[in-house]
Amino acid sequence: MKHLSLVLSSIALAGVAYLLYLHLGSKHAGNNNGSPKEAANKLEIPEHGHIAYFEMDSVEQQYAYVKEVRSQLKSRQESIANELNNMKKSYMGRIQQLQNKAANMSQQEGEAAQAEINQMQENLQQKEGRLTQELQDQQFKLMQDISKRIEDYLKKYNTTKGYAYIFSHSAGDFIYYKDSIHNITTDLIKGLNEAHKKPK
């Protein structure tokens, strides 16, 4: 009885080994049957894993469109500051005029002058709030546009790379180790700038 179970176990083990041999042999043969053209069309799967990253700080410094956006926002910020400064100068000038006349004003004129000052101050605050909000909205839309351009380029870039994930890395992120072999920052910046140069 012991001999029978030993024989059956040996047969089963031999069967498993044979199936394994067939499986590996067919897989190996299949890898060698593809034409060179078919091999060229396959994804260039990274040898060292399926995760890549790029340095966002470098993209912000070297991506031409980001530089244009910064220049545009700086120009708008300066324009707003100049407009508000002119309003404040006008406001302060009017207050000085009313203060010079205050000694000769009647009570009614004094109340009217105070109401005018209050209205000017309210107008200035409203204007400042509106312009600040417009600047923030513009900045948000431009940042979204930059993010969309990066995302669109990476989708195209990854059609031949086969990464499962591509992360952005910035100072302060909770990434304590990164292998530079997975760094695609140079490819990303080059591709983004080339796409930006093309006529729209």
Question: Which helices and strands appear, and what pairs or packs with what?
Answer:
Blueprint: H1 2-33, H2 36-41, E1 51-55, H3 56-62, H4 64-101, H5 107-157, E2 165-169, H6 185-197
Give your account of this protein's structure:
The chain has helices at residues 2-33, 36-41, 56-62, 64-101, 107-157, 185-197, and strands spanning 51-55, 165-169. It is mainly α and 200 residues long. Strands 1-2 form a two-stranded parallel sheet. α4 (64-101) packs antiparallel against α5 (107-157). The radius of gyration is 35 Å and the shape is rod-shaped. Mean pLDDT is 81; it is low at 1-24 and 26-32.
User: Helix- and strand-based class?
Assistant: mainly alpha
Instruction: State the helix count.
Output: 6
Strand arrangement, major sheet: 1-2
Strand content: 5-15%
